[in-house]
Amino acid sequence: MKKKLLSLMLALSMLISTMPFIVIAEEDGAGYATRGYVADKLLSVSDDYNAGITRGDIIKGYGDGDTKDDQYITRSEAVVMADRAFGKMPEPDKNFKRISETDLTFSDVPDWAEDAVNNLASRGILVGKGDGLLGSEDFITEDEVTLIIRRLYYLFGSNLKDDFQAYINKDYYNTAEISQGNVVTSSFHEVDERNDEIISDIINNYLSEEQPAGSNGEIIADFYTSVKNLNTGEGTEQDIEPLKPYLDEIDKIESLDELDALSTKIVKDYLVTTFAAFAIVADFKDNTKNILAFGTYSPSRTKADYENEDIMNSYKDYLTNILVLGGEDNTKAAEDVEKFIAFEKDLSQYVMSNQEASNIDNIYNLYSYSELCDLFPAFDFDKLLEALGLHPEDNVLVTTPKVMEAFASYVNDKNIDLLKTILKISVLSLGSQLDKRFIDAANDFESDYFGMDVTSPAEDIALTTTKNTLSSYLSEEYIKRNFSDETKKDVENMVNEFIDIFRNRIANLTWMGEATKEKAIRKIDAMSVNVGYPESFEDYIDDITVYSPNEKYAYFNTMNSIRKSAYADIAESQGKPAEKADYWSVVPVYTVNAGYMQTDNSINFPAGILQEPFYYSDGKPEENLGSIGTVIAHEITHAFDNNGAKFDEFGNAANWWIEEDLAVFEQLCQDVVNYYNGFESAPGIQTDGELTISENVADIGGMACALDAMKKLENPDYKLFFESNAKLWKITGQRQYLESLSTIDVHSFGIVRANRLAALFDEFYEAFDITEEDGMYVAPENRVSIW
């Protein structure tokens, strides 16, 4: 109420400027900025962009010359001052146009502020309140003023002291193009595209001549061609005849018993689980043992999507189209979809965030088999297990108990029609393996979702599907063409060096007691390392039939064969000791990423990422330490982030901490949350410090270790080190994509990741002469560190 009153009073003072009435800043002003504060702040930051600007040029004052320094300032006034301070502004580059909203117009802007507001709005600097409102007469806070300034730094990208990442990657942001079918591109995507050229050449060699029957070459060629034919509509005639018997049976269902029987038959025939599923996994708390795991139906979209009316309208149209393609009347399909969306929206409130789901304490929940049967009396789990080739066990692992219990409340006679719709949509998910019309429908929805055409060329889809599905058939040939033993040895040596560095850093921690240090060092000493490729190349998918592209339903039948083969391997492991996790069985060697696996305490660096700009075979030490060095140490640090710290040296979930040390560690993690929270990846899109905590902790530890390695060099070039690191995080994408990422991705976005990280280290300030007057400056007392 007080804020509204102050806004009204200030508006009156602007309208009746001759009256000697002002609003003076008070102690309880909720962080509101004053005119004097904004003028001084803008003067201190804008000289590099608008030489010779004076305070008087910025604030100007009223007709009587009074600048009213102590008066609260409205948003429109602050925008006018920013416009004056920064002077002639550049047009947004390709990147800034993508990530910001440059077409916003506002209906509540006073005439005297229109030019300034339009100038900043057309450059994507302003973010409104919605409904075409800027909130022109609302008071602006000091934090909001800082956000506008940071956006202007990013727009200019001309001063590394104010926005290091934007400056280092300026040429990239001016020229980067997003390839057809994608919504983002980055350093990772560029390397992935280079890898794709190699894999494409391998596949084309197989396609260029007839391959021996049953050979890898024939398998790859046939699979690739069947995917390509499906996406071009070429080859055999397309339809969904294999699904129609199941769709007809769904329509006839009148009871839960009939529903359960049909859903179990679909599992047996096609391994498509809808309402419930079982699998065998290694026990998180004793990874030498396997355990039966259970899961139920989960919403198909994110929680944020269900709150977005435009997205939901588009999604409803898509699902309605799918049901119509499956033979439903349009009117009935639309009615069924309305109920389906209401159900999913309700269920979505029980879904854990990505950060919550990465916490072992949240996902390790044991139920007795009888408890699950009692929770779902309408489902015959004995028969479901039999269809999956499994058998009951006394204890069952459930990772999403709230979703499970919420879904159980829907399994009753009252909801039989809804459950039939759920089952029908599940069956029709196979339509995209049979009929291009289903693929087109999905592309239309995704294009609408991201605000651009995401339809990929058929050749690209065939390549991506082949490399992701049959990676074990391509990996060895890729390594022969694109990876050297010298690189493998060099990176392995770097990994060993960083393990030593991290061990020493643990030993020298002042906040951790000796007992906990001993266990932490035991964990790092037990860490296993995978670099480049496996010791031997195996066909992780065997006993499969890859159908000839000349056969009808070739891709559909091949994928069914692959699903059954993969699940047979899973079923075979029940009752046996768990095998040691094999990173290469789940991650192709040409993957452009690296990873730490909590459940086996391993760090992993596929060959695919070990090339520029991540690794320079002929680069200077500083260049590699700033790139792959920080990546290596980042993965090591993951063993000790807020999630990894809950696993011991064997990869088992266990508390190895002294209580006092754990309390300090948790507070340090909270400091990291606060340090990153609220920083923008794009105008109006803020970083969630809680969501990104684990990756931010790993980034900080990774750079700290890499800087320790730098100290071993003679006359190290710290500028090259930090520039090399900043190049890793160049990324540009559609704004809609960034908005989605901000709610689900555990990584901070590129600009935040690079700038907030570098600003933590003294070496950065010394290398680039960063002072309190610069945008990159963070006061020493606000810099965070853990490992």
Description:
The chain is 52% helix and 6% strand. It is α+β, with helices and mostly antiparallel strands. A hairpin with a 2-residue loop joins strand 9 (680-682) and strand 10. Helix 4 packs across helix 6. The model is unreliable at 1-28 (pLDDT under 50).
Percent of residues in beta strands = 5-15%
Please report the total strand number as a whole number. Answer: 11
Largest sheet composition? 4 strands, mixed
Number of helices: 35
Distance between the termini: 46 Å
Radius of gyration, taken over Cα atoms and rounded to an integer in Å: 29 Å
Q: Indicate the mean pLDDT.
A: 93
Structural class: alpha+beta
Helix content: 40-55%
Strand order, largest beta sheet: 2-3-5-4
Low-confidence stretches: 1-28
> Judging from the principal axes of the Cα atoms, what is the shape?
globular
Summarize the structure.
The chain is of the alpha+beta class. The chain is 52% helix and 6% strand. The N terminus is likely disordered.
Which SSEs are present, and which pair or pack?
Layout: H1 2-15, H2 35-46, H3 55-59, H4 75-86, H5 94-99, H6 114-121, H7 142-156, H8 164-168, H9 170-175, E1 184-186, H10 187-207, H11 216-232, H12 244-252, H13 256-270, E2 276-283, E3 286-296, H14 303-306, H15 309-325, H16 330-348, H17 354-357, H18 360-363, E4 365-368, H19 369-375, H20 381-388, E5 395-398, H21 401-408, H22 416-428, H23 436-450, H24 458-469, H25 471-482, H26 485-507, H27 514-525, E6 528-532, H28 554-572, E7 595-597, E8 602-606, H29 621-638, H30 659-676, E9 680-682, E10 685-686, H31 693-710, H32 718-728, E11 731-733, H33 735-744, H34 750-758, H35 762-768
Parallel strand pairs: 3-5, 6-8
Antiparallel strand pairs: 1-11, 2-3, 4-5, 7-8, 9-10
Helix pairs in contact: 2-4, 4-6, 10-11, 11-24, 12-22, 13-20, 13-22, 15-16, 15-23, 16-22, 26-27, 26-29, 26-31, 29-31, 29-32, 32-34
